[in-house]
Design brief:
Elements: H1 3-10, H2 14-24, E1 27-29, E2 35-37, H3 42-53, E3 58-62, H4 69-83, E4 88-92, H5 96-113, H6 115-122, E5 127-128, E6 132-135, E7 140-145, H7 149-152, E8 159-163, H8 172-181, E9 188-192, H9 201-211, E10 217-221, H10 227-233, H11 240-249, H12 252-259, E11 268-269, H13 273-279, H14 288-292, E12 297-304, E13 316-326, E14 329-340, H15 345-359, E15 361-367, H16 372-378, E16 387-390, H17 394-409, E17 413-414, H18 420-428, E18 430-432, E19 438-439, E20 442-443, E21 446-448, H19 456-466, E22 476-477, E23 481-483, H20 509-524, H21 532-539, E24 540-541, E25 545-547
Parallel strand pairs: 3-9, 3-10, 4-7, 4-8, 8-9, 12-15, 14-17, 15-16, 22-24, 23-25
Antiparallel strand pairs: 1-2, 5-6, 6-7, 11-18, 12-13, 13-14, 18-21, 19-20
Length: about 550
């Protein structure tokens, strides 16, 4: 059979591709050393058939580590290179080192160690260079590129391969490759990558796949529910004993990310779903006095401002929260989370004035971006002393979101179910360790929303809570104690530092107020069987004392 006859046998969809693998037997590196012909596992073979037999221009292989996703992409590139004319192929990765050491090296290995392909290179039919492979007879070339969008703009490509898209710093490379392939009939973009954060370009493709709104996209996602599932269904070349050993040596989250390939392991939610369910379990009226139940409290506002007419659909949101004390712990109740139409200054002013008028807001946190005019206006308002501009650096965000997440995890954050947009944003607001910023030896994570989602309500809530960080509340307070008793009994009174409730308590205005606060405390905390004397001693701030001579 001549080479031309072979090429005809290799043309077509998946049948031609597997004929190519059968005839050429291109090799990849073997786990036991040396090289072995590339043979996909049964599950991987099924995914390849679907990818090549459909009319897809973008094909994603999101498989766990060591499942051959990069090898599969490279073999498809090799197959197209040998069976088509004027192929112009780009091999791209997120670092220059990975281009020449991983994907492109796999191509070089195939040409240098596959007998059929080596005969072509030895005869001079195919030229294998350091970063390019050329087939002069068909005017085809495979070129390695670093992940630099400027190097890809203007290229007219027929195929491209990119590895580990989840680690891409931006959409630049993906956009450049898409533009370079868009005007070529039969072009194909091959992406091989493990899963990544929900803010990554890869997750955006996955969402598009689930929505079914892009018929040109094929997304192959292989994941495992647990270690037993992985051992039962992994390709035959993965050693099960070594896989189990790795699970004992690696951190559970890292092992799950690499070897189970589950989206949920690629990043962490700021608030776990069970904690968020607890935060949103109960409805309540936005009445600070009723929520405080006699305890001291402070109302704080927050602002996250978007630019008017934002093309990303961002919103300007104001939030009001009350911080009060329940069982000696500071609890936060969301009173309002409101979108300001068109980001109008008048709307922001109206909301903040309403928070002060109706609820007594005294603190307010304004995110610096676009809020200078709001801050200047607030300096003439009654809450001026408690208003601050907050620069959202990573360090400041870390402090603010730690406060929010800790309150939620401990059941101290309360969100009425009517605040649906805030709750929906919290359901997917994530933390990603990208290693870009550190303090000492500690990395500061990145906070944000998945692609296609928003986080305006979350940031507004965070700034409202952060504005209370320097306030320490006493659980229950009296405006002061005025004692008119002149006998020795007053030194034994609980309000004056003693341990008894004297006979004059019934006619004492301060003691009656103390009893009212005790009743409110007992109603909120029925399991705490404190006596009124202990309550006054341990939980009541009596303020100043006025004693008759």
């Amino acid at each position: 059979m001549t080479f031309s006859d072979m090429v005809e046998r290799w043309k077509g969809g998946s049948d031609g591709f597997f004929n190519f693998l059968e005839d050429v037997k291109p090799v990849v590196r073997c786990s036991k050393g040396g090289f072995t012909p590339f043979v996909p596992g049964p599950r991987e073979r099924s995914e390849i058939v679907q990818a090549l037999d459909g009319d897809f221009s973008t094909v994603v292989f999101s498989w766990p580590r060591r499942h051959g996703k990069t090898a599969t992409s490279i073999m498809i590139i090799l197959w197209r290179f040998l069976t088509r004319r004027t192929e112009n192929v780009a091999i791209v990765a997120n670092s220059e080192k990975q281009v020449v050491d991983t994907a492109f090296r796999m191509l070089r290995d195939a040409f240098e160690n596959t007998p059929f392909l080596k005969r072509l290179t030895d005869a001079g039919s195919i030229d294998v260079g350091m970063d390019a492979i050329r087939f002069p007879a068909t005017s085809s070339v495979i070129q390695a590129f670093s992940a630099n969008p400027s190097a890809l703009w203007g290229k007219k490509l027929t195929a491209a391969q990119i590895s580990e898209l989840h680690a891409a710093k931006s959409d630049g490379v993906l956009e450049a490759l898409t533009g370079s392939l868009i005007d070529t009939e039969g072009s194909m973009l091959l992406i091989d990558s493990t899963v990544g954060p929900m803010s990554s370009p890869l997750y955006a493709l996955y969402q598009s796949h689930l929505a079914g709104d892009d018929p040109s996209l094929f997304f192959s996602h292989i994941q495992y529910s647990d270690l037993d599932d992985a051992c039962a269904n992994s390709p035959p070349w993965i050693d099960r004993a070594r896989l189990r050993a790795a699970s004992r040596r690696m951190l559970p989250q890292r092992f799950a990310l690499f070897h189970f390939n589950r989206w949920g392991d690629a990043s962490s939610l700021l608030i776990a779903s069970d904690a968020l369910a607890l935060c949103t379990a109960n409805s309540y009226l936005p009445d600070p006095k009723a929520l405080a139940g006699g305890a001291s409290y402070v109302v704080s506002g927050g602002l996250d401002r978007a630019f008017g007419g934002s093309k990303h659909g961002d919103a300007t949101v104001t939030t009001a929260v009350i911080m009060t004390v329940v069982d000696d712990e500071e609890h936060y109740f969301v009173l309002d989370s409101d979108v300001v139409m068109f980001s109008r200054l008048a709307g922001i002013k109206a909301n903040l004035k309403r928070y002060h008028r109706d609820w007594g807001m005294t603190r307010c946190g304004l995110e610096t971006y676009g809020a200078q005019d709001v801050y200047d206006w607030a300096q003439a308002e009654a809450f001026a002393d408690g208003t601050e501009l907050i620069t959202p650096s990573r360090k400041v965000q870390y402090q603010a979101f730690t406060l929010l997440a800790t309150a939620a995890a401990e059941g101290r954050l309360h969100i009425d179910p009517r605040f649906t947009r805030l709750i929906e944003e919290l359901k997917c607001f994530e933390i990603t360790d990208d290693g870009k910023e550190t303090v000492g030896n500690e990395a500061i994570p990145k906070f944000g929303h998945p692609r296609g989602k928003h986080d305006d309500h979350v940031y507004s809530l965070a700034w409202a809570m952060f504005a209370t960080r320097e306030i320490t509340l006493n659980p229950y307070e009296l405006p002061g104690v005025r004692c008119t008793d002149t006998t020795a009994a007053r030194t034994m009174c609980a309000l004056n530092g003693g341990a008894l409730i004297p006979l004059c308590a019934g006619s004492c205005r301060s003691m009656r107020k103390a009893f009212d606060l005790f009743d409110q405390y007992a109603e909120r905390s029925p399991r705490n069987n404190l006596s009124v004397e202990v309550f006054i001693s341990e939980k009541l701030n009596t303020g100043s004392h006025t004693i008759a001579r």
